[in-house]
Amino acid sequence: MPNSKKEDGRIVLTSVLDLRAAAPLTDELLGLRGENVVIDASKVERIGAPCFQVLLSAVKTWAVAGHTIAIFDESSAFSEAATHLGVCLSQSDKNESEPCH
Amino acid sequence: MPLSVLAVDDSRTMREMLRLALTDAGFDVSLADDGEHGLEVLQGVTPNVIITDINMPVMDGFGFIEGVRRSTEHRVTPILVLTTESATDLKMRAKNAGATGWIVKPFDKDKLIDAIKRVAA
Amino acid sequence: MDSMADIKQTFFQECDDLLGELESGLLDMESGEGDSETVAAIFRAVHSIKGGAGAFGLDKLVAFAHIFETTLDEVRADRLEATPDVLSVLLRSSDVLADLVGAAQKDEELGEERTAGLVGELSAFVGASADASEEPAAVGEDIAFAPLGMDFDLDDAIGDLDGPEDTQCYTIKFRPQPELYANGNETVLLMRNLADLGEMQVACDESKIPTLDELDPEGAYLAWTITMHTSHSESELLEVFEFVEGDCELEISLDEAPSDTTESDLVDNEATPTGEEVATTDVEGASASAEDEVANKDNVVQLAEQKDKQKPAAAAKASTEKDTSDATIRVNLGRIDRLVNLVGELVINQAMLTQGVIDAGLERGDSVESGLEELKQLTREIQESVMAIRAQPVKALFQRMSRIVREAARATKKSVHLVMEGEMTEVDKTVVERLADPLTHMIRNAVDHGLETAEERIANGKPAEGTVSLTAAHRSGRVVIEVSDDGAGINRERVKKIALEKGLISPDEQLSDSEVDNLLFMPGFSTVDKVSNLSGRGVGMDVVKRAIQAVGGKISISSKPGKGSTFSISLPLTLAILDGMVVEVADQTLVVPLTAIVETLKPTPSDIHELGAGAKVISIRGEFIPVIDAGRSMGYRNEPVDPLHGVVLSVETEDGARAAVIVDTIQDQRQVVIKSLEENFGHVASVAAATILGDGRIALILDVDSIIAREGSARLFHETNLAATG
């Protein structure tokens, strides 16, 4: 099952990011290692904690490697879930005093 | 899009009650008579939530839950066990088989809907 | 559209199908064709009826289906064997279940008496095989099926324990395990549900997240600390996590103690507390505080523990509200037996203390003496109360007999009416249980042999329908159960003829009517010419008699030609205490069961007759009874004692064999606590058991039957036997 579409260091998150989506998403991100990546979250209708774990792991991995990774155009479902989980996904926000939630 | 629910119960009465309660709540409802039938039905539908009885002929609820969890398509679908037994060990067995939660019969319609909404993503 | 009414129709249709399956399954089991799937199907049928009935608030149906189902579950789990007796109860239960369904369909109520007896019998099966570990489950079930119909909800009960209060601040620490996600639960949803309960701040602990190459996509790395301002109770917060119990670490602590809280050791927690004391709100009251202490020490309170402790508390509350007057608990029988034993010890101890006080020679009116009197009274009350725990009404047993009568009537093509009386008479549980078989046999006998055929009855001017009556009553410290029929009475000529044919009596024996009647109890006796398939299974009344004797009972028979026969069973109220006569033999103290003693007398020289070889008989009102010297019989002395210097106890065994037991003196007549020798020592010939007397000495309880048997069968007028005596 194709999880997302790759466009030159760009990932478009699929609409349903449940537990089953976590492994394909991990694989897809691993395939983009060494590149700056932008992630389009506009189509997300549903996302759970496991996929947030993948995204958080990616942010951490990219930061260690010195590359950028950014999520943009978050759908309301994505933002709502992130807020519920108190998850902060922006690399740059990590160093600021005000967390993103 | 309305939530879709598959309800598996060997009792005709219970199936009819579930159908009534769930359609009234605006859900799309599929029904199955036992675990084996439930797995067959799942080849054609992708419900948001599955509700199943435990004690059924042919294939009981535990076998059905395990079957669902083994399938690639439905392995993360929330499964609520619908059972008269409120006994803790039964819930634990259901959980070990992969159940998400439970509803104790005789069910209250609102509680039923509430439980579905609690687990439906 | 009146859909619920439509579904109710569906339910009754389905019930018809299920009841059919239930009955045919039970009949298959009865004929030995059933297998485990049959049992499972039977269980399911009752289970489904219960489920539907619950949904429609058919409480009586639910209640009966529930106990029926519980019993079937015992059978299904191989904890209860599907003996013919069990199946008979199950079959009758299925009849009653069908009646309950029928009544519900017509919006009628079935009389309590239709179900009460069966409920008792079903419960007895469950009680006999259930162990203590099942208790919590049983409590849960009871709650789930409290007659509250569809509105009932356990969670409401929990929630209501906390009234609306001011906003409180909780810290919730939540760490999911991978199973939580694998089972289809989702933290996002939990958070969403939690957010509905109040204002919250969520702090996500991302520290455990590994880099992508080390990440298990379906692992659980995130943990959360939630600060929650809510007016909802802790139990309501816990309810959000109900489904993830066991799949996560969960800790809920109250940050600020409300003013009315008595606990003083609450600490204010920061959003990320470390090692703080966990203060769980005390929803159950003081009883839970001990567990709280333990939980607090562990610091991390597993959700499972919290739930475990809350549900029974809520259950207890609910059941208290439901009915306080009729509340019952189920207790493992072993515990009661231990209590009975301990009370036995107490009785002995109290008797010893009394003896000690007497020996100390205290003055009359001494405070010790009056205190002792009170102790004696208390001991007696405790003893009675403990015995009452084990007591059960014979009702369930009696009702089981009604089907036996029906079956026997059907098999013999006789019309029989059963009359029951005194069903509420209480007897020790063990006695009740052990009565089932003999009583069944007696009832069958009454129908099969006692009652005449309808034609014969009409010819004799009796109603075509025969009457069998079953009565129970307390009579002077014992329970008397009688089985009577209004049949032809015992055909004594035929009984004698059969006894003669079987060599049980000699041709020249002169037997009284009562002695002829008692021949029925002789081993191997059977009055039926043609073996009917009912009672002629080679099991005679002698087996019945032995079963009755085994519980310390006596059976007797009386019969009037043309009017009918009555079998009368006299039973002790308990198997732990015995009415005994304390006697002295060769300086040894013995106890003779009072039930065996017909009379006591001082013989005169003219009563005693020598038979030669040391054997003696005594003449009591014209009957010659063999004399047994208890001292020699027990091996206390070798020289025969002169009967004229002792006291003669005229004793009778359960089979009517009589003997005159000579003892030196009679000391007392009292209740003694039975101490089994077989458990502690081993079987001793002539000794039934032992007891401990007030002065601490052990006294043996004489086994009259075995003494007479050892001295030779003492059937009256049996010269051959008399010659063997001594």
Index terms:
heterotrimer, A: 101 residues, alpha/beta, Transcription Regulator spoIIAA, 4-stranded mixed sheet, two-stranded parallel sheet, 3 helices, 6 strands, globular, disordered N terminus, disordered C terminus, B: 121 residues, Rossmann fold, 5-stranded parallel sheet, 5 strands
Overall description:
The complex is a heterotrimer of chains A (101), B (121) and C (726). Chain A is α/β, with parallel strands linked by helices and 101 residues long. Chain A has one domain (5-92): STAS domain (Transcription Regulator spoIIAA). Chain A contains 3 helices and 6 strands; from the N terminus they run βββαββαβα. In chain A, a hairpin with a 3-residue loop joins strand 1 and strand 2. Residues 1-7 and 92-101 of chain A have low confidence and may be disordered. Chain B is α/β, with parallel strands linked by helices and 121 residues long. Helix content of chain B is 42%, strand content 20%. Chain B has helices at 12-24, 35-41, 61-70, 88-97, 109-119; strands at residues 4-8, 28-32, 49-53, 79-83, 101-104. In chain B, helix 1 links the parallel strand 1 (4-8) and strand 2 (28-32). Chain B is globular and about 30 Å long. The model of chain B has no long low-confidence stretch (mean pLDDT 86). With 726 residues, chain C is of the alpha+beta class. Chain C has 5 domains: 3-130, Four Helix Bundle (Hemerythrin (Met), subunit A); 155-322, no CATH class; 333-392; 394-572, 2-Layer Sandwich (Heat Shock Protein 90), CATH 3.30.565; 577-724, OB fold (Dihydrolipoamide Acetyltransferase, E2P). In chain C, the strands form 5 sheets. Chain C has a 6-stranded mixed β-sheet with strand order 14-18-19-17-16-15. In chain C, strands 6-8-9-11-10 form a 5-stranded mixed β-sheet. Chain C has a 5-stranded mixed β-sheet with strand order 20-12-13-22-21. Residues 130-164, 258-325, 528-538 and 713-726 of chain C have low confidence and may be disordered. At the B-C interface, helix 1, helix 4, strand 5 and helix 5 of B face helix 1, helix 2, helix 6 and helix 9 of C.
